[in-house]
Design brief:
heterodimer; A: 295 residues; mainly alpha; MetI-like fold; two-stranded antiparallel sheet; B: 310 residues; 2 domains; globular
Chain lengths: 295, 310
């Protein structure tokens, strides 16, 4: 915990300004800038996917072409095609959309649930804290990936179920972090002042405490986003991910695994894509942490 | 101490009961699937119902649960529908295989990450520190399936040095263990390195290290005799928790290399709705989780006399 993260908040407006300012400070961290660059690259690719992608991601064109070859009809394939006749480059470009929509969404819902639980446990204490902490202990003592697999195999592989599984498995971890931060912040003067003013408990939690806990939470969110992308990738790789019509990086690796002996490029490129995006978020988190520790 | 361990065992039993009930409920939601998985997609509705009845699936939920609980407590884990043998017959050999893989992984990963972490944390901000930190961020950013693809592309397809699968069909072969262990090490060592680095860097800023440096001790001696002892307490906990991580970490690796271990078993059990096998695997997982956590906590207080049991 650094002192920098704890300032008396005058509400979300000021907090937002401060957050923007610390993103501006990111320029001082080279590692953070590289991370931000990688993330930004994939965000731009995702936004402009329809313009950049040379082909439709589910359009069957030519089978098993190596990278950089021109098909019989004069079509050029920079990254080749897979065994189902789909252009790999187009699928990677469209796949960035899938991952950049569903991973942040899953992280966000996990955060909403985790923050509410953590605030309640840390601020209200008593039996609420006991019950919530016990529940999260139980969930956390179970291997996460197993939890995901069981939830997905029972309820079926769909985007919503992936979001539910990730929320269920990651919110206890977020709750622990928030709870720890709240325990530290709840005895501050501004909390006492708000209590004297007669503010409601939820007002104090959401308006007084939460904005002051944001520093470590932003860093954690970046790291967690990386983990969620890994998770979605792993589920796709195991064949439990986002169902076929949507291009999904993990799924691409799963579908081309059988022919990886002859055509390594089919699995190699999606792996590079997913690794670079995760690396982006991890470097960004590292840069943000470095800045928040500086002063 | 005894009270502490007792409390933990109590928590473990509570967790096991809660988890096992939840798993039963979870699988209760889709009962028909089991019969389809066992009898195949072309079985008739009647055949499936007969099978379900013969295996007691139409009994009320709580009766089946208590039946299982009683059997489990007395050491009978039930039969696996997937493998058509008692659960214990598949569970223990698979667990042993994963233990071998885990030991191989840890034997390399722990020394590697401790040395790198200490080297990086010794002089914070130095070139060594920066490069080690960057390497560890990069390696933890590559998901296991991706590094498995990269490594097999280089070592199996290109250089043709190692076998691409680890089925161990013709008996145990240590060469087949290299790739899976390598993937696990690459994914996990960065995290332990960073934790060791943070701990080491923190110790290096303390007063007693400054005193030791200022009184003219050789730097090597300051690090070896004074700093290390305190800097290695935190990584101990981290390493214990990695054992727990490994249980789910091996799923991807074992699936990728077709290694017959616990992770692959768990995946297969979940995909086939093999309830008793899932329950047994889950109980092993909870046991390992609580046991490693408890050992980590006890070890931590033992290594660090400043902390006592509360």
């Amino acid at each position: 915990m650094t002192d920098r993260g704890i300032i008396p908040a005058s509400g979300y407006g000021a907090a937002l300004l401060r957050a923007l300012k610390s993103f501006g400070l990111l320029r001082e961290s080279r590692v953070g800038m590289i991370g931000a660059g990688l993330v930004l690259f994939w965000i731009i690719v995702a936004i402009f996917a329809p313009l950049i992608a040379p082909y439709h991601p589910t359009e069957q064109i030519e089978y098993d072409l190596l990278p950089g070859t021109t098909g019989p009809n004069g079509n050029f394939f920079l990254l080749g095609t897979d065994q189902r006749g789909l252009d790999i480059l187009s699928r990677i470009i469209w796949g960035s959309r899938t991952v950049l929509i569903w991973a942040p969404l899953a992280t966000l819902t996990a955060y909403v649930v985790g923050i509410v639980m953590g605030l309640a446990a840390g601020y209200l204490r008593g039996w609420v804290d006991d019950v919530l902490s016990r529940i999260s202990d139980i969930i956390l003592s179970f291997p996460v990936l197993v939890l995901y697999i069981l939830i997905i195999t029972t309820f079926g592989a769909s985007k919503i179920n992936i979001v539910i599984a990730i929320t269920f498995a990651s919110s206890p971890g977020i709750m622990r972090i928030v709870r720890g931060l709240v325990l530290d912040l709840r005895n501050r003067d501004y909390v006492a002042a708000a209590q004297t003013r007669g503010e409601s408990a939820w007002h104090i939690m959401l308006v007084e405490i939460l904005p002051n806990a944001r520093g470590p939470l932003i860093v954690d969110a970046c790291l967690r986003l990386g983990y969620v992308i890994i998770t979605i990738g792993v589920l796709g790789f195991l064949g439990l991910g986002i169902p076929p019509p949507d291009p999904d990086w993990g799924g691409m690796i799963n579908q081309s695994r059988q022919v990886a002996m002859e055509f390594p490029h089919m699995t190699l490129f999606p792996c590079i894509a997913i690794s670079s995006l995760i690396l982006g978020f991890n470097l960004l988190a590292d840069g943000l942490r470095e800045i928040s520790l500086r002063d | 101490m005894l009270i502490f361990v007792g409390k933990r065992i109590g928590f473990m039993i509570l967790t096991m009961v809660v988890v096992s009930i939840l798993l039963f409920l979870l699988l209760e939601l889709t009962p028909g699937n089991v019969a389809t998985k066992v009898l195949g997609p072309y079985s008739s509705e009647e055949q499936r119902n007969l099978w379900l009845e013969a295996h007691g699936y139409f009994e009320p939920f709580y009766i089946r649960y208590f039946d299982w609980l009683g059997n489990f407590a007395s050491g009978n884990f039930g039969d696996s529908v997937r493998f058509k043998v008692p659960v214990s017959e598949v569970l223990w050999p698979r667990l042993a295989n994963t233990a071998i893989l885990g030991i191989a992984t840890f034997a390399v990963m722990i020394p590697l990450s401790l040395i790198l972490g200490v080297l990086a944390g010794m002089r914070e901000g130095s070139k060594t520190d920066r490069s080690i930190s960057i390497v560890s961020i990069v390696t933890t950013s590559i998901p296991e399936f991706a590094s498995a693809v990269f490594i097999t592309a280089i070592l199996v397809f290109w250089l043709k040095l190692l076998p691409g699968t680890s089925t161990m069909t013709y008996g145990f072969d240590i060469v087949q263990l290299i790739l899976p262990a390598m993937v696990l090490i690459i994914y996990d060592f960065g995290y332990v390195t960073r934790m060791t680095r943070a701990s080491m860097a923190e110790v290096m800023t303390t007063q007693y290290i400054r005193t030791a440096v200022l009184k003219g001790l050789p730097y090597r001696r300051v690090v070896m005799r004074h700093a290390l002892r305190n800097a290695l307490i935190a990584p101990f906990t981290v390493i214990m928790l990695q054992i727990n991580w490994l249980l789910s970490g091996v799923i991807v690796v074992e699936f990728f290399f077709a290694y017959k271990g616990f992770g692959a078993l768990l995946l297969e059990a979940s995909l086939n709705k093999d309830i008793y096998l899932i329950e047994a695997c889950a109980m092993v997982a909870v046991l390992v989780a609580v046991a490693t956590q408890t050992i980590a906590d006890i070890g931590y207080t033992y290594l660090n006399p400043r902390i006592r049991f509360s």
